[in-house]
Design goal:
By secondary structure, this protein is of the alpha+beta class.
Length: 735
Amino acid sequence: MSPQPQAAVGAPLSRVDGRLKVTGQAKYAADHDIDGVVHAVVVDSSVARGRITGIDTRAANAQRGVLGVISHLDKPKLAYRENRVSNAFPGERLHVFQDDAVLFFGQPVAVVVATTLEAAQHAASLVKVSYDAQQPSTDLTRSPAQDGPAPFEAPYKRGDAQAALGAADVRMEMTYRLSRNHHNPMETHATIARWDGDKLTVWDKTQWVIGTQNELAAVFGIPLENVRVLSPFIGGAFGSALRAWPHVTIAALAAREIGRPVKLALTRRQMFFTVGYRPAYEYKLRLGSTRRGRLTAMTHDFKYETSRYEQFWEANQALGQMLYAVPNVSQKAQMVPLDASTPLWMRGPGYSSAAFVIETAMDELAYKLGIDPIELRLRNEPGEDPSTQQPFSTRRLGECFRVGARAFGWHRRNPTPRSTRDGDWLIGTGVATGCYDVFRGQAEAHARLDADGTAVVQSATHDTGTGTYTSMTQVAADALGLTVRNVTFRLGDSAMPPAPAQGASQTMLSVGSAVQDTCDKLRQQAIALAVEDERSPLHGVDADEVVVRGGRLHVKGNTARGETYRQLLARNNRTHLEARGSYTPEEESRFSMYGYAAMFAEVAVDARLGLVRVRRMLGVYDVGRIISPKLAESQAVGGMVGGIGAALLEHTVTDHRDGRIVNANLADYLVPVNADIPDLKAVYLDGEDYKAGPIGVKSLGELVQIGVAPAIANAVFHATGRRVRELPITAEALM
């Protein structure tokens, strides 16, 4: 079959949904105008552990406009069937309003429904809840309460790390600490729920409409087909919307009990308690090497927080097993149950935390041995995946470092710490490796080609701001041989063909491959119709010799012989053609598949005050084929901004006396703003990886944040000569 011309893929197109967003026409979860909607406000617990002894709702119910207050005292029975589709963690998710137990500070304990938001907010403030409170355990650095579950351990072993450490020429032992981070997207979480008889429709902020559909069906004990979830636009999520949180159930429950559509929007403060977070870590690393910098052993012993009721897991062990050629490795990962809500994956989950530790340790080893940090990494490049002995689909990390070193001017640096100044500022540069798995999921899509020569393609995927609308339109346009303006891509509806969650950097590969398959089938259907039609200029032509460009089918190399989609369908009295396609990854791959990054950072540190300013950053990436260069640039810049936040600013503070998060707002939980952001540049290596998938792409969205924080931390050491092993890096640590 002749390959299709590629006009849209690889072009730096602006977002196809950009005008809707900048003109305010894009509707986010709370923006939908539903007839008869009323408002709900959640009442949160003010203790982290204990039991509810009473709820006084008299003052709240007496307020004008209040339609009801719902709590466990009203005994709303919910089925809470098992749902392993979207509840992946061992344990049992929080059962809303089903008993009097309080498991974490900020847990929903009641909901007020009123005709206006203001009435609901005021009435919620009048609900009085009394508790039999117990002392909570919320500190990762201390042992959990005696009656709590024991920490869960996940060990790994390769070779004999203990013996190799004992025999190593150089041994190092370090302990790193990473603070809890919260997602804090621009759009807070919101849900609108409406019942029509026994059918439930939900407008929700979710990264997985299919997952939310499954959870609501399980919670309410109704058939899956009775639930429809819509999420056409998402104002950022970073992982926080990868599961259906309690407020989604509460909105649907309130709508059922009150008999009206209900809108429930969380406050910024509530976002800190019930929609996940990146867990805090305490990570001990020991390494051994030769005097020439060849790693001989690594041991990883770390613990991180989870809730008492669910065992949260993330891929925090992979980097320690495969990133470098280390013959002897041991790992012990512990989940420590605390009186807190369940964490959830946050951009670069697991990998970001592990990368900070491993890449900071590699920098420490480089300085100890007097070896350039890039050279040390290159000396430990594996020829195959050390953890699986599989060949890499592609691994161009060395090329990333070489390209980045030239572009960044790495070799102009004075390698001696605290040797470069700019007035009162100490100047330093650092590097780190980024790496993320190529995650793939099963996906389906549907395409319809109408008689006017336009097409509509759809899949139940999402756009969290990553540009899915645009990138899928590009893939579909080239596969159908249409211009981008003649293709519409639709998403965010559980009634559409199923797709995986938008997380783990799987959307472009998984859904993009399904879109490619679908549109290839549709184009081939049109070509078959033409070559079999005696009235067509293409009659009798080998179908494999026909291509489509600009909506016109023609013989490859002979553009004069052909016709348009419009002409073909009109002559055959067809209103449309349609096709459904899919992508299913093979169960077991023969290759080790990862995306790679070389991160470079330059910082300035005030010699007297310890203030850190990032002056410039460069990321060089091996991620296969780039579908949309403008979107890829945007992703990299966003990832660097998130990494700056993790490195220097973001830090959740808990009062361990009662489990309260004391900085649950954007005044005290600091995130980067424009003034914090320097010159950021991204370079993507040309290439593709068809071993990873049929459209040649690899992981991108998660990867671009991994390696940013350690590159900054290593630059801070080079500037100051002081090694900080805790995130975020504060002025106090450098003074």
